[in-house]
């Protein structure tokens, strides 16, 4: 029987990345659900007068609030692409390198077409995002910009704040509210498709690689073969040492 | 009606008084039109003064591919001075549907105005211009609409594009646009153009735009696509009296249900008010009597570009851009989501088959370690 591989815990997703991820998840769920309700509101029966009800107004309020959060958290993530670690950096997303394309075809072969390498080479396993994932995130980023532009364009005339008004050029560019709304609605479906594939692939990697893919977005750690890490830092020893120091200090 | 030629320059006030209106009528008109133009009440004096002192601005009104509903709307704008003075008696030097002269006489009158007031007259255009087949789909007096438009625009101070035809092509420009009906701003690039869309535009809006032009001698404040902000800055939805029902989530489901009778919001019946910029909710129609939504019918978005091609009037759907009516975004989305879910399930099964050795090996190693747990 093969020997169990030794793994090292690597801090991959820093806190701002994880915060971005989960707030984004929450905002998107609210945006999609309230978006569907806005597009096709349910028939409610009420004997109450309009003055006493504000149900649709609340749905819209949630949509707009989530939209603002979605937008600001996106700005935070872009900022973090310049100050974050190597896995969060914009360099990780830059598609025009040979290394990136080699990884792209490797992922396509192994994970999408499900072929097997004759000999496993651990250095080919991505630690952060793989190249197919980064490409999909670039697409999602563009789509998010489309949603921000079309959404704020539709919202601009209801707002007196300058921020949504910055997007009022979008409506004439696209030829009116009809087209803006159609694009906004259609692009939403692409987010749903992305989420389906994204969640599946996270499970897929966790199931087949066992490196903590799912939990990494909570704790931030992934597990990487020891042989990939030069001067492997034995964290257990450090922890024991730290504990001793703490005890000694007391 | 006249094709006036007299040399003496009259002010608007002169002609209004000459028509038998009192000073009081005139002041009422000035107040009313100031309000419609969206100006402050302190501006009434300025408007009255401008009408008293400015000389009439000649107007040439061209008709191309259109149904004349804009003219109809204009002459029904609810203050008589609008129709009487601004349109008929004072300013309109050429409009083939309303002028008494016809044939060569009318064309000669137009030519005379164009020569005499070169660079001063306002050109009003009602209708789109067909560019297909050398413009032969719309010919007047043996000349194509494009030729006439270019000639008339040459010496114009500004152009007012009346109605959806002149602003965005309206129904004749709907897909497949057989005559290649083209809005004015795509043909004339070197003149200021005011777009007053709508099918037709509201008469008071038209009057407000004309009066603004003649009294202040400049264009009203326009939005990004050239519509006067005073009338087109808000969606019909934002000034709709049924808006509280929308915010409350109370919608008519069909045109004959109790909700419709209660006057609930027509959003789910395809009302395009939330996507349409116009003043229908505030100025209303037919002397402020009503407007479509008040009459129980949703807005069809007639003042928006391509309103004919933007999906059904009585349904609220999202089209996938680039597809026809079949391409309902949600239908496609549900099918695609199903296909993706199926594909992922197949991929998951295939992955477990293809990677079975690796999986088994890892599970075995994991189990072995589990047996050997020490402490």
From TrEMBL, chain B:
GO cellular component: [Ni-Fe] hydrogenase complex; ferredoxin hydrogenase complex; plasma membrane
Binding of [4Fe-4S] cluster 2, residues: 237, 240, 265, 271
MF terms in GO: 3 iron, 4 sulfur cluster binding; 4 iron, 4 sulfur cluster binding; electron transfer activity; ferredoxin hydrogenase activity; metal ion binding
Binding site for [3Fe-4S] cluster: 280, 299, 302
Record keyword Hydrolase present: no
GO BP: any one term: anaerobic respiration
Residue positions binding [4Fe-4S] cluster 1: 67, 70, 165, 199
Cofactor(s) the record lists: [4Fe-4S] cluster
Compartments, as annotated in UniProt: Cell membrane
Keyword tags: 3Fe-4S, 4Fe-4S, Cell membrane, Iron, Iron-sulfur, Membrane, Metal-binding, Oxidoreductase, Signal
Keyword Transferase tagged: no
Domain Cytochrome-c3 hydrogenase C-terminal span(s) in chain numbering: 232-313
Domain NADH:ubiquinone oxidoreductase-like 20kDa subunit, residue spans: 67-212
Main subcellular location of this protein, as a coarse class: membrane
Top-level taxon in the UniProt lineage: Bacteria
One matching Pfam family: NiFe_hyd_SSU_C
InterPro entries on file: Cytochrome-c3_hydrogenase_C, NADH_UbQ_OxRdtase-like_20kDa, NiFe-Hase_small_C_sf, NiFe_Hase_small_N_sf, NiFe_hydrogenase_ssu, TAT_signal
Entries under PANTHER family matching the protein: HYDROGENASE-1 SMALL CHAIN (PTHR30013:SF6), NIFE / NIFESE HYDROGENASE SMALL SUBUNIT FAMILY MEMBER (PTHR30013)
UniProt subunit comment: Heterodimer of a large and a small subunit.
Family classification: Belongs to the [NiFe]/[NiFeSe] hydrogenase small subunit family.
Protein name as it appears in the record: Hydrogenase small subunit
Organism taxonomic ancestry: Bacteria, Pseudomonadati, Bacteroidota, Flavobacteriia, Flavobacteriales
Gene designation per UniProt: hupS
């Amino acid at each position: 029987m093969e020997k169990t591989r030794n793994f090292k815990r690597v801090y991959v997703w820093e806190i701002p990345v994880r915060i971005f991820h989960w707030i984004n998840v929450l905002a998107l769920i609210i945006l999609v659900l309230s978006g569907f309700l806005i597009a096709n509101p349910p028939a409610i029966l009420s004997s109450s007068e309009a003055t006493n009800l504000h149900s649709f107004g609340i749905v819209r309020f949630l949509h707009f609030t989530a939209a603002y959060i979605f937008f600001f958290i996106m700005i935070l993530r872009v900022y973090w692409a310049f100050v974050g670690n190597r896995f969060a950096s914009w360099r990780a997303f830059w598609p025009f390198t040979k290394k990136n394309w080699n990884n792209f075809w490797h992922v396509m072969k192994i994970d999408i077409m499900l072929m097997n390498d004759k000999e496993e080479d651990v250095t080919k396993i991505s630690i952060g995002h793989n190249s197919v994932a980064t490409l999909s995130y670039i697409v999602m980023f563009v789509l998010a910009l489309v949603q921000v532009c079309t959404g704020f364009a539709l919202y601009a005339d209801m707002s007196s704040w300058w921020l949504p008004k910055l997007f009022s050029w979008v409506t004439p560019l696209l030829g009116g509210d009809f087209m803006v709304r159609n694009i906004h609605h259609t692009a939403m479906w692409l987010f749903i498709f992305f989420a389906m594939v994204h969640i599946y692939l996270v499970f897929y990697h966790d199931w087949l690689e066992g490196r903590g893919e799912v939990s990494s977005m909570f704790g931030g750690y992934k597990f990487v073969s020891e042989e990939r890490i030069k001067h492997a830092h034995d964290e257990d020893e450090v922890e024991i040492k730290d504990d001793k120091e703490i005890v000694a200090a007391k | 009606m006249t094709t006036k030629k007299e040399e003496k320059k009259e002010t608007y006030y002169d002609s209004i008084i000459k028509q038998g209106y009192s000073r009081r009528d005139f002041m009422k008109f000035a107040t009313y039109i100031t309000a419609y133009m969206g100006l402050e009440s302190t501006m009434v004096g300025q408007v009255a003064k401008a009408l008293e002192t400015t000389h009439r601005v000649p107007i040439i009104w061209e008709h191309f591919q259109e149904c004349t509903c804009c003219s109809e709307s204009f002459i029904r704008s609810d203050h008589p001075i609008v129709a009487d003075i601004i349109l008929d008696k004072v300013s309109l030097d050429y409009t083939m549907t309303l002028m008494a002269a016809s044939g060569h006489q009318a064309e000669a009158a137009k030519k005379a105005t164009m020569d005499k007031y070169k660079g001063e007259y306002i050109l009003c255009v009602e209708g789109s211009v067909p560019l297909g087949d050398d413009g032969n789909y719309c010919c007047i007096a043996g000349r194509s609409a494009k030729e006439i438009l270019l000639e008339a625009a040459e010496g114009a101070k500004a152009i007012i594009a009346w109605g959806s035809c002149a602003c965005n092509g309206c129904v004749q420009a709907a897909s497949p646009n057989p005559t290649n009906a083209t809005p004015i701003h795509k043909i004339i690039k070197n003149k200021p153009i005011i777009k007053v869309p709508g099918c037709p535009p509201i008469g008071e809006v038209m009057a407000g735009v004309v009066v603004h032009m003649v009294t202040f001698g400049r264009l009203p404040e326009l939005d990004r696509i050239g519509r006067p902000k005073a009338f087109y800055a808000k969606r019909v939805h934002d000034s709709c009296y049924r808006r509280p029902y929308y915010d409350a989530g109370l919608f008519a489901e069909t045109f004959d249900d109790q909700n419709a009778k209660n006057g609930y919001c027509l959003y789910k019946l395809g009302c395009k008010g939330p996507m349409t910029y116009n003043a229908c909710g505030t100025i209303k129609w037919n002397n402020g009597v009503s407007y479509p939504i008040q009459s129980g019918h949703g807005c069809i978005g007639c003042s928006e570009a391509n309103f004919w091609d933007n999906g059904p009037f009585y349904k609220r759907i999202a089209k996938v851009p680039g597809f026809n009516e079949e391409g309902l975004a949600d239908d496609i989305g549900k099918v695609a989501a199903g296909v993706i879910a199926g594909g992922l399930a197949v991929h998951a099964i295939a992955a477990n088959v293809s990677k079975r050795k690796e999986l088994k090996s890892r599970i075995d190693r994991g189990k072995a370690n589990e047996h050997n747990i020490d402490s």
